Amino acid sequence: MAAEIHSRPQSSRPVLLSKVEGHQDVVSAALLIPKEDGVITASEDRTIRVWLKRDSGQYWPSIYHTMSSPCSAMAYHHDSRRIFVGQDNGAIMEFHISEDFNKMNFVKTYPAHQNRVSAITFCLTSEWVISTGHDKCVSWMCTRSGSMLGRHYFTSWASCLQYDHETQHAFVGDYSGQITLLKLEQNTCSVITTLKGHEGSITSLWWDPVQRLLFSGASDHSIIMWDIGGRKGRTLLLQGHHDKVQAICYIQLTRQLVSCSADGGIAVWNMDISREEAPQWLESDSCQKCEQPFFWNIKQMWDTKTLGLRQHHCRKCGQAVCGKCSSKRSSYPIMGFEFQVRVCDSCFESIKDEDRTSLATFHEGKHNISHMSMDISRGLMVTCGSDRIVKIWDMTPVVGCSLATGFSSR
């Protein structure tokens, strides 16, 4: 049963298998090579490197290629051995890697953006390379001809991208905190909807095409799950990080979400339970518990000869309350609040001890994490960041996957 997957001791934690060092600047992206003891990295030191594990257990670069501009994003399609590397100058370069991963041949350059490329995805069926950039646009180009098919502009930097290959829907997160759902056509696109819920820039997206769920991480330290397939607009809020959420990955098989933040935090969320949706915050001119006026309610302050109070909100019921009526703090994991938040006194009394049981596990990656990628079939994760270090993790102690066979700590 799926529920048994999560009944693990709290001492279980990710196992660091290897550290790969050698880059001279921020590592923008790192990807595990499927079915191989290898990692592909792209860095702002203008290099793309393919690292293979030697008999000594150390990783050595079998490919070391220098680009004309810092590398900012990367996509790799294993079946066709094609790599797409986005750069600071807005160009995307395509390469083909040999079967032994010892040679990389240049294919073509795509003039995708006028500024830094922030995310790339490749669709083999349509032969499109889709990308977002700091020129405030998403572009899609034909990989056969190298020509631009279409562009769509936003009001702020486009920061991250997910794509549904079957329906040709693109999800684009931007620095204003919005996520735009687009339907891409051959030479045009249409805006389906805009998702608003974050209070900071969108830093990461993950699309699960099976359950039709979209997960978004943001600089407001939170994650939101959007039920796209249900079309009910249902959203779940997850708060457990102390810094901006840099990368997320949903494991559909075990209903777990893995997230990483800039301070090195790694969280594994149990999504295989019925969670409660956080309430909308209510507005009122006076406390909805004691009816004392808030400081902008001049009339009631004058009538009652009292000073106005500051407005707060209970995270559990959403009511507008004063500080005296919301003096308590509590975690409430079923609603996504993994650390203590403000609740009104009546809600505090209604929360039982068992309601405070955590529904996520938290671990320390011990380095700045700006990008994360998982090989779900093997239960492996790779993280990288501004400290120029790449770390390879065995995640099987904390996630349900137990097929990690390619990598070993020896």
Topology record:
Elements (H helix, E strand, L loop, with lengths): L1 H4 L9 E6 L6 E6 L5 E6 L3 E7 L5 E8 L4 E7 L4 E6 L4 E6 L6 E7 L6 E7 L4 E6 L3 E6 L5 E6 L4 E7 L4 E6 L3 E7 L4 E8 L5 E7 L4 E6 L3 E6 L7 E5 L5 E7 L4 E6 L3 E6 L27 H7 L7 E2 L6 E2 L6 E5 L4 E7 L1 H6 L9 E5 L6 E5 L4 E5 L5 E5 L16
How would you concisely characterize the structure shown here?
Keywords: Endosome, Metal-binding, Phosphoprotein, Repeat, WD repeat, Zinc, Zinc-finger. With 410 residues, this protein is mainly beta. The chain is 4% helix and 47% strand.
Write structural notes for this entry.
The chain has about 400 residues and is mainly beta. It folds into two domains: about 15-275 and about 360-400, YVTN repeat-like/Quinoprotein amine dehydrogenase (Methylamine Dehydrogenase, Chain H); about 295-355, Herpes Virus-1 (2-Layer Sandwich). Helix content is about 5%, strand content about 45%. It is built from three helices and 32 strands. The protein has helices spanning about 1-5, 300-305, 345-350; strands at about 15-20, 25-30, 40-45, 45-55, 60-65, 70-75, 80-85, 90-95, 105-110, 115-125, 130-135, 135-140, 150-155, 160-165, 170-175, 180-185, 190-195, 200-210, 215-220, 220-225, 235-240, 245-250, 255-260, 265-270, 310-315, 320, 330, 335-345, 360-365, 370-375, 380-385, 390-395. A four-stranded antiparallel beta sheet has the order 1-32-31-30, with no helix packed on it. A four-stranded antiparallel beta sheet has the order 2-3-4-5, with no helix packed on it. Strand 3 and strand 4 (about 45-55) form a beta hairpin. The longest helix is centred in the C-terminal third of the chain and has 7 residues, at about 300-305. The protein is globular, with a radius of gyration of 23 Å. The protein starts with a helix and ends in a 16-residue tail after the last strand. Residues about 1-10 and about 400-410 have low confidence and may be disordered. InterPro entries: WD40/YVTN_repeat-like_dom_sf, WD40_PAC1, WD40_repeat_CS, WD40_repeat_dom_sf, WD40_rpt, WDFY1/WDFY2, WDFY1_FYVE, Znf_FYVE. It is found in: Early endosome. This is WD repeat and FYVE domain-containing protein 1.
